[in-house]
């Protein structure tokens, strides 16, 4: 018999996913600034207080997939196999993030493109993404340096992470602006390969 704790966690995961999908659809339909937390909660059939149980602010809903995916990326770097190069590990991590559908918030609902467009077009979300990006790069560089202590010092790790992240984000945003968000995984992987060319 399934334990009550397991049932509670599954219900919480469903509620979180419903809030994310509902919020993104409302942002897409009526605009990010015009959509209120109260409207998202009503459409998701929960109380506004429930929204804040899951997300501190409206912008956190847009970036809801980040913690889970970053945790997976840190694990992919830290758990490098013997003989893996820096390029091997980072390309594997890029493919994990960009090509896998195995996430609690699925990438096949069509909402990944909505999220990317919102970040590309909304000034407040662009600023939030940039603010988060600085922390993400710093944390990833630390994980990479610890995974390759004999090959990378702190400066080298930050340089490698910065080049890869910059290449991936630049090409992904370009694809979104061209109206071709479905090409993001392919172009971003190629960008990562180019950025890592010559990296051992």
TrEMBL record:
<dbReference type="GO" id="GO:0000976">
    <property type="term" value="F:transcription cis-regulatory region binding"/>
</dbReference>
<dbReference type="Pfam" id="PF00440">
    <property type="entry name" value="TetR_N"/>
</dbReference>
<keyword id="KW-0804">Transcription</keyword>
<feature type="DNA-binding region" description="H-T-H motif">
    <location>
        <begin position="36"/>
        <end position="55"/>
    </location>
</feature>
<dbReference type="InterPro" id="IPR009057">
    <property type="entry name" value="Homeodomain-like_sf"/>
</dbReference>
<feature type="domain" description="HTH tetR-type">
    <location>
        <begin position="13"/>
        <end position="73"/>
    </location>
</feature>
<keyword id="KW-0805">Transcription regulation</keyword>
<keyword id="KW-0238">DNA-binding</keyword>
<dbReference type="InterPro" id="IPR001647">
    <property type="entry name" value="HTH_TetR"/>
</dbReference>
<protein>
    <submittedName>
        <fullName>TetR family transcriptional regulator</fullName>
    </submittedName>
</protein>
<dbReference type="GO" id="GO:0003700">
    <property type="term" value="F:DNA-binding transcription factor activity"/>
</dbReference>
<dbReference type="InterPro" id="IPR050109">
    <property type="entry name" value="HTH-type_TetR-like_transc_reg"/>
</dbReference>
<dbReference type="InterPro" id="IPR023772">
    <property type="entry name" value="DNA-bd_HTH_TetR-type_CS"/>
</dbReference>
